[in-house]
Amino acid sequence: MPLMGYTAWRNFMVPLERAMKAAANQGHDATSHFAVSRKVVGRQQGGGTERADYELSRFAAYLVAMNGDPNKAEVAAAQAYFAIQTRHAEVARPFTREELLARAVLESADVIAEQKARIAARDAKIAIDAPKVAAFEEFLGADGTYGMAVVADMLGWGRNTMLKRLREVGVLSSQPNMWNVPLRRHMKHFKIVAYAKDGTERGYTTYVRPSGVEFIRNTIGVGTGAASCSRLVDVPIG
């Protein structure tokens, strides 16, 4: 803050320390009203010197002004400002019961209007999404899961691109023997079906539960392609 007309910092420390003592004597935590930090100020001859810097609350600024030298124009102006503000607070007429009730009604009306706007936005989104949901519901498996290709279409990704992104962010495994199998902590969003691979090895196909669609969207976002029904055959992941 400005030094209120004091030509040297050490002179300004006099009203500042008085204000801190006044706050402490009134039972206030001075450290919360007079937050101090240290900064280094450069010198012409080189190097720097450490100086305390204070950030004052409004209450602290009031106490500093009241403990300042009124012969200084800046201090007198600050004292006058706080005196005027105190007088305004003293003569301000409290709200009547009717006025308080009217304010509460207006605030309630604003809250209701905001809620209606949110509901309208939600309903509009549901109406927009409904055809997409209906288009993909027929591809929901009997076990209540989606194939990866269908989910990729839902979110506007290419299937392989989506799988690559899920491996990169640690949702799916990139280990050769567990390729594209979700990590244990994400397993609740997926269903894994094992199958025989080349007669000797075991492979796995990953399917997505309904919760997984939103999980994937929140994790990697949506792709640049519009959702469509073009790629609907899921290929076993091996």
From TrEMBL:
One of its GO terms (molecular function) is DNA binding. It comes from the Bacteria. InterPro entries: Ant_C. Residues 124-220 form the Antirepressor protein C-terminal domain. This is Antirepressor protein C-terminal domain-containing protein. It comes from Nocardia terpenica. The lineage of its organism: Bacteria, Bacillati, Actinomycetota, Actinomycetes, Mycobacteriales.
